[in-house]
Amino acid sequence: MIEDKHAGNVILLRVACISLLIALVLAWCLVFTKGMKLPFFLNIFEDTDKLLSAHLDFLMMTMLLLGFYASKISLPKYVLWPMAIGSIGNPTAFILNSVFPSSTSPIIGIFIFTTITLTTVGYGMAAIKVLRYSLK
């Protein structure tokens, strides 16, 4: 039997890299909005505090994904995919709130509810599986 050097969790590593790259782009957006106050970027990101929240949330998701990946504890696909999708979707909700701060769109509301649910289910199941593994 061949062991997977990623413990089957390579999706976590890939999404962590994507999440980190997005956080770096958002860091520059923060420089252009909060720091330099460039009108072009201020017109895009109306609520710069939500932009900061998005940046920090992408960094947090990166750390969580890397932590679970580094544990090398194999997680099933029904745990990995909600973690991956939620890790991108959850901080994206902050970007939507930054770009459309006064939106009452039900589509944005459904997106936010869905991504929060996916994130909670994915990370909750991962935490339970890792905890159970640690008790063996």
Termini separation (Å)?
22 Å
Shape: elongated
H/E series: HHHHH
How much of the polypeptide forms β-strand, as a percent range?
under 5%
Please summarize the sheet with the most strands. none
Assembly context of the chains: single chain
> How many DSSP-defined strands?
0
Compute the number of helices: 5
- Helical content (DSSP H or I, runs of 4+): over 70%
Radius of gyration: 17 Å
Helix-and-strand structural type: mainly alpha
Low-confidence stretches: none
Q: What does the average pLDDT come to? A: 96
Number of domains: 1
Describe the protein in words.
- The chain is mainly α and 136 residues long.
- It has helices at residues 10-35, 39-44, 48-70, 77-99, 106-134.
- Helix 4 (77-99) packs antiparallel against helix 5.
- The longest helix has 29 residues, at 106-134.
- It is elongated and about 55 Å long.
List the helices and strands and how they pair.
Layout: H1 10-35, H2 39-44, H3 48-70, H4 77-99, H5 106-134
Helix pairs in contact: 1-3, 1-4, 3-4, 4-5
How is this structure best summarized?
This protein has 136 residues and is mainly alpha-helical. It contains five helices and no strands. The chain has one domain (10-129).
Essential attributes:
single chain; 136 residues; mainly alpha
